[in-house]
Write a structure and sequence with these properties.
Structural class: alpha+beta
Helix content: 25-40%
Number of domains: 1
Order of helices and strands: EEEEHEHEEHE
Strand order of the largest sheet: 6-7-4-1-5-8
Radius of gyration: 13 Å
Shape: globular
Number of strands: 8
């Protein structure tokens, strides 16, 4: 990974409100131990990440958005490879921040990802 690496985030259908992605898509849940799971875009394409997430892991996603390692660093969020679950797995670490700060940082990441646009979206037959 380098500063230009895109970190690929799967967007659950529940994270869409009024046709827009909510910041919840970039906020870790309590079960995540304040770490957000993403894919390393240097190791997998957005389409391959979507297929892995929805077919191999059998989880729900309507598409893939991305933020760069540099954008995470600008938000003071460390990025760490975590290949234990699968090779391309990476964590964006929100630990050490209050819930209010996490919400603010999640909104910042969402805005950066939305400005970049969808990297992959589910195709409907």
């Amino acid at each position: 990974m380098n500063v230009h690496t895109l970190l690929l985030r799967q967007i659950h259908p529940d994270f869409i409100q009024n046709q827009r992605v909510s910041s919840q898509a970039f906020r870790p849940t309590p079960k995540d131990e304040r770490k957000l799971s993403v894919y390393d875009g240097d190791l997998i394409t957005p389409a391959e990440a979507f297929k892995h997430y929805t077919k191999t892991l059998n989880l729900k996603s309507i598409g893939v958005l991305g933020v760069s390692v540099k954008e995470c660093k600008e938000c003071e969020l460390p990025v760490t490879p975590d290949p234990a679950p699968f090779l391309e797995h990476v964590l964006i670490d929100f630990s050490g921040y209050s819930n209010k700060a996490i919400e603010k940082k999640a909104k910042q990441l969402k805005a950066k990802a939305e400005a970049r646009g969808w990297l992959h979206q589910e195709t409907r037959a």
